[in-house]
Amino acid sequence: MKTLSYKALEEMNYDGYLLKEGTERVLQFGEGNFLRGFVDYFIDVANETLGEDTKVVLAQPIAPGLADMINAQDGLYTLYLRGKENGEKVNKKRVISCVSRCINPYSDYQGLLDCAKNPDLRILVCNTTEAGIVYDASCKFDDAPATSFPAKLTRFMYERFLNFGTEEGKGFVVLSCELIDYNGRELKKCVMQHIADWNLSDAFKTWVEEENEICSTLVDRIVTGYPRNEIEEITAENGYVDNIVDTGEIFGFWVIEGSEGLKTELPFAKADLPILITDDHTPYKSRKVRILNGAHTSMVLAAYLAGQDIVRKCMEDEVITGFMNKTIYDEIIPTLTLPVEELKAFAASVEDRFNNPFIDHSLLAISLNSASKWKARVMPSFKGYVEKFGALPKCIIFSFAAFIDFYRPERLEEEGLVAKRDLGNEYTVSDDRFVLEFFMAHKDDDNRTLATAVASNIDMWGEDLTSYEGFVDAVTAGLDAIKEIGAKEAMKHCL
Questions:
Q1: Residue 264 in 3-state DSSP?
Q2: What is the largest CA-CA distance in the chain?
Q3: Is the pLDDT score of 179 beyond 90?
Q4: Angle at the Cα of 201 from the Cα atoms of 196 and 259, rounded to 5 degrees
Q5: How far apart are CA 116 and CA 379, in angstroms?
Q6: Closest Cα partner for 248 from 392, 67, 96?
Q7: Which residue in 366, 369, 394 sits closest to 381, CA to CA?
Q8: Secondary structure string (H, E, C) spanning 354-400
């Protein structure tokens, strides 16, 4: 069986959309599953919908990577977007053809720098993981390539400046997709630091400031990557070998914080794609973190204690689903600033996303580092609810009790706390070491003592939660209920 390529598709009389030739307008630092299942998908659909011919050059950010596989397939790959929409099962397949090639800068650094000489290149996209946007003082201008992404970017922008520095409109729009707050702003800080440390000219610094727009963005799609367990069936169905098949959920949303002019330059809206360009992405960040991620964090620990193991199965349980929806609609949405109908529409999509029949999302996997997750994802809604209503949010309080009960240890091992749920099986709690050692030190506390100790731990929460009137009483009641009637019945009492 032949490997996916333009020639192979031609011989198969493939009649789907393909863009064999085009103009390289985008350089993408990252060739992994996420960007190929998210950004490149959007560009590919825009090409077809609007009659555009934009091609994307991929740059492999680390060695080793996928460059050889991508180039062997002419940049083509098959993308499956799967899940539920409006309660209906959906499985969409598309051959993505917007990628022209992939450069490995570790074997062809000059090939990467040569892209800066392309007058049509305008958009730079990056997703180099949360650890990718860091300033590394050890990186030098002459590194080929530098270790860190910000250093690579600074050197690449300087090459652009050398070729087009006096020509207006030849700077870049940089779209940072890393999962950190204000990713674009943090990336720009690193670039400006490298400019200073490398003693690059004031003219270059001015050019970076005035001719380039480094945007913070919010990305939202679960990309599940190469479907290893299904690949034989997929290969037989397609009639070709694809070594870089990608899979993801149907839902996708991209918020780009940028100038008004970007709406014209990035014509995604004309293609009716779920991409929003705005002057402030933070309300959408809050919506995602507090509704989607907050629903996960506030629900999964109690659900695991109640006997569930994966998210999808939780959605088949009326009590757990009811608890999640009450948390979202009654306790989280009222604390957010976007229009209520927008928030409700996003919340409605959450249940479909959690109920994805193609993803077995483990509750224990989600439970990783739940202390910091509760602080970042749930605590802002708790505080907002108290401020707005002058009362404690019942479901959120119970989620805090479930968090404490989930962390009750039998013993502490190198991998984490070993705990046991009512079904009898042991599980491992993974978190920062100080969190694990704290819970081990309070292993034998009664419910009220433990609730008080956890709530007053300023290192965990950044403040003393016992200062909220009735907090300890409510959390203790939740712990008592879990012990006396079980986690599921205790959740039911919240409804």
A1: helix
A2: 74
A3: no
A4: 80
A5: 45
A6: 96
A7: 394
A8: HCCCCCCCEHHHHCCCHHHHHHHHHHHHHHHHHHHHCCCCHHHHHHH
Evaluate if residue 473 carries a pLDDT over 70.
yes
> Does position 132 have pLDDT exceeding 90, yes or no?
no
Q: What is the C-alpha R_g of the chain?
A: 25
> Please, what is the Cα angle at 357 between 45 and 290, to 5 degrees?
75
Quote the tokens at residue 307. Answer: 């006997």
Q: What is the CATH number of domain 6-279?
A: 3.40.50.720
CATH number belonging to domain 283-492: 1.10.1040.10
Mean pLDDT of 158-178: 95
Cβ within 8 Å of residue 78, ≥6 positions away = 4, 93, 94, 95, 96, 234, 238, 242, 245, 246
For the chain, the structural domain boundaries read 6-279, 283-492
Residue 330 is classified by DSSP as I
User: Which amino acid would we find at residue 286?
Assistant: S
What's the rounded mean pLDDT across residues 382-403?
A: 98
Q: At what angle do helices 318-326 and 340-354 cross, to 10 degrees?
A: 150
Q: With contact defined as beta carbons under 8 Å apart, do 145 and 96 qualify?
A: no
Amino acid at 380: P
| pLDDT band for position 130 (cuts 50, 70, 90) | low
With 0-12 / 13-18 / 19 or more C-beta atoms within 10 angstroms meaning exposed / middle / buried, residue 470 is exposed
> What's the whole-number average pLDDT of the chain?
96
pLDDT, tens digit, for every residue of 202-258? 999 999 999 999 999 999 999 999 999 999 999 999 999 999 999 999 999 999 999
Give dist(CA 395, CA 317) in Å, integer: 17
Judge contact between 51 and 229, C-beta under 8 A.
no
Read off the pLDDT of each residue in 419-445 and give the average, rounded to a whole number.
Answer: 96
Spatial separation of the C-alpha atoms in residues 460 and 372, rounded to whole Å: 7
Distance CA 133, CA 179 (A): 10
**pLDDT above 90 (res 461):** yes
Give the Cα separation of 124 and 160 in Å (integer).
12
Cα 393 to Cα 351: distance, rounded to the nearest angstrom = 21
